[in-house]
Amino acid sequence: MKIHARTERLILRDWTSDDLDDYAAIVADPEVIAHIGDGEPRARSYAVDFLATVTEQQATRGWTRFAVEHAKTGHLMGFCGVDDKIGRLDFGWRYGKEFWGAGYGYEAAAAALWVCQNVFHLTHITSKSYLENVGSIRIIEKMGMVKIGEGAAFGRPLAIYGFKNEWPEGV
C-alpha cells in the first residue's frame, strides 16, 4: 500500500480491499450523502464499484481520490483527491460524519492538492459544490480556488471553482 502524504493527523494512501466495509458505511449515511449527487444514501454495491474504480486508477495512473486514514487510530475516514469522470479534473472529498468539524477536511485537501500538483503535475483542477454546502465551499476557498462557473445537478444549483490563473475565462 502506497502512502501519498502524511500530515500530523492524517495519512493519504492507496485503497485496499479492507476499506470496503468502512466506506460502505460512510456512503450509506444519509447525512454524509445529503450534498452528494442526488442526495440518496448509497447501497453497498456503490461502494464495491467505487473501490474497483479507485484501485484501478491507482494501479494505472497513480492519482485518484486517495483513502484518508486517521493516523492515530488507523480508521478509514473517507477520501480526498481528484477524479476525471465528469470530463475535467474534479477535486473532492467525502468523510464519515464523526470526522466533521475538526479541520480534517482542509488538512487532507491541502495535502492531496499538493500531491496532485507537485507529484502528478495535474493542472486545471476544479471543485464543485451545491450552494447550501457551506462547509465544503469554505474548504474550497481556503484551498485558494475562486468561483469560475455555475451549473446544476439533479435540479440543484451548484458553483464550480478553480484556480484563477488556470481558468481566467472560467469554465
Structure described in brief:
The chain is of the alpha+beta class and 171 residues long.
Termini separation comes to 36 Å
Query: Spans with pLDDT under 50 lasting ≥5 residues?
Result: none
* CATH class membership: Alpha Beta
Mean pLDDT: 97
The strand line-up of the biggest sheet is 1-2-3-4-5
Q: Tell how many strands the DSSP assignment holds.
A: 8
User: Which word captures the global form?
Assistant: globular
Question: Helix coverage percent of residues?
Answer: 25-40%
Q: Nearest-angstrom radius of gyration?
A: 15 Å
Q: Give the CATH superfamily.
A: Gcn5-related N-acetyltransferase (GNAT)
What is the domain total for the residues? 1
Find the structural class using helix and strand composition: alpha+beta
Order of helices and strands: EEHHHEEEHEHEE
The largest sheet is: 5 strands, antiparallel
The total count of helices amounts to: 5
Question: What is the CATH fold-level name?
Answer: Aminopeptidase
CATH architecture: 3-Layer(aba) Sandwich
Q: Please indicate the percent range of residues in DSSP E strands (runs of 2 or more).
A: 25-35%
Give a written overview of the molecule.
The chain is of the alpha+beta class and 171 residues long. The chain has one domain (3-162): Aminopeptidase. 31% of the residues lie in helices and 28% in strands. The chain contains five helices and eight strands. The chain has helices at residues 20-27, 30-33, 44-60, 104-118, 134-142, and strands at residues 3-6, 10-13, 65-70, 76-83, 90-95, 126-130, 146-153, 156-162. Strands 1-2-3-4-5 form a five-stranded antiparallel β-sheet, sandwiched between helices. A hairpin with a 5-residue loop joins strand 3 (65-70) and strand 4. Helix 1 packs across helix 3 (44-60). The chain is globular and about 45 Å long. The mean pLDDT is 97.
